[in-house]
Structure formats: C-alpha cells, structure tokens
Amino acid sequence: MSAPSPDHRPDTRYATTPPWDIDRPQPVFLALAESGALTGRVLDAGCGTGEHALLAARLGLDATGVDLSAEALAGAAAKARERGLTARFLEYDAGRLGELGETFDTVLDCGLFHLFTGAARQRYVRALAAVIPSGGRFFMLGFSDAQPGSWGPHRLSRAEIDAAFADGWQVDALEAATLEIAVGAGAAAAWFVQLTRR
C-alpha cells in the first residue's frame, strides 16, 4: 500500500533530530485527546516519528500515520513497539491521500500544511477532502505570520487559511497557539485550526 511520491528524494531530514521532532505530542493535540475530540479512525498526516498517531493509539483508536521519510517512519514503528501500541505507518505522499481508498473520522496535521503554497496547497486540501467524509474533523497546527524573523517554514496568515478551506469546510476555530520546537526559545507562534468537512 506504500506509495512514495514520484519526486521522492533521498531521506536526509532525519539524519539528525529536526527542530520539529520534540519526542512528545504538541500540547494542543494532547488537550484535544484529553477533551475527547479524537474519534474514530485517526490519520496523522506528515506524522514524522509518530507522536500524534501514537497519542490516538494510546486512546484505543485506529491510528495511521503517513510521511515521506522512511527513517522517521522507522522511528515511529520503534516507538509503537516500545510503548506496546498498535498503529500503522505508511510511506506515502500526503498530496495523494485519496489514492489510499480510505476515509478517516479525524485527521491531524502538525507542521505539514505550512510547507505547501500555490498548487501544492490546493492539491493537499483536495486530498484531505477525499479522505475526510462529511462531519469528519481536521485539526492543524502551523507556523504563524506572528512569528518574527525569517527562519523556518512559510508563515501562514489567517487569510491564507480561510481561503484554502473556503469550499466544503466549516472553520470551527482558528486561534493563535504555540508550536513547540527543539531549537532556539523552544516555541514558535502558530495557528491552531479546527475544521469540519461539510
């Protein structure tokens, strides 16, 4: 079922620990789990070493993580074994999620959406729409334009997020948040977005 992107390049992102890999769930996703908002089949898009898929698995949910990094996925699988959790990890292009032929009640995105601009962003949003049925939820934590400086990924504006999800989505919440990182001050300004598929 694994289908890497046609433009998949040698995996170097996890040769050393990347800034976004904090080896624990982001606080906003932990709070979601504690509130009971994670339900049904859960997909962690761009899962990295799997903390959010494993958070869902710890709740007894059917959890899947997808990422293009084979090295990160190996780390996720090792964590699952060490913690005695069951989760599925697939080397897969998040822009092609519709080709999985599956649907998910809850999709989590920590630091993936902000990597996309233009046509790539539109492709990703279409892929999300293909796997999230009406009433399904999408939760996204992405770099914010409130973050000073120029280092790091693209900084998302509220207007960009609203525009990306204008068709077929209900924005339930779009709030300023914090993205914990393993460099610098240890945190960056972020947007936390909660959406429901119409």
Instruction: State the low-pLDDT regions, or none.
Output: 1-10
Count of strand segments: 7
The helix/strand class is alpha/beta
Q: Which value, in Å, is the CA radius of gyration?
A: 16 Å
How many angstroms separate the termini? Answer: 28 Å
Oligomer: single chain
Mean pLDDT: 92
The helix content is 25-40%
Strand content: 25-35%
User: Quick one: overall form?
Assistant: globular
Task: Give the count of helical stretches.
Answer: 5
Major sheet description: 7 strands, mixed
Instruction: Identify the strand order in the major beta sheet.
Output: 3-2-1-4-5-7-6
Order of helices and strands: HEHEHEEHEHEE
Short description:
The chain is an alpha/beta fold and 198 residues long. The protein has helices at residues 27-35, 51-58, 70-83, 118-131, 158-164; strands spanning 41-45, 62-67, 88-91, 106-110, 137-143, 169-180, 187-197. The protein is globular.
What does this structure look like?
The chain is an alpha/beta fold and 198 residues long. 26% of the residues lie in helices and 25% in strands. It is built from five helices and seven strands, in the order αβαβαββαβαββ. Strands 3-2-1-4-5-7-6 form a seven-stranded mixed β-sheet, sandwiched between helices. β6 and β7 form a beta hairpin.
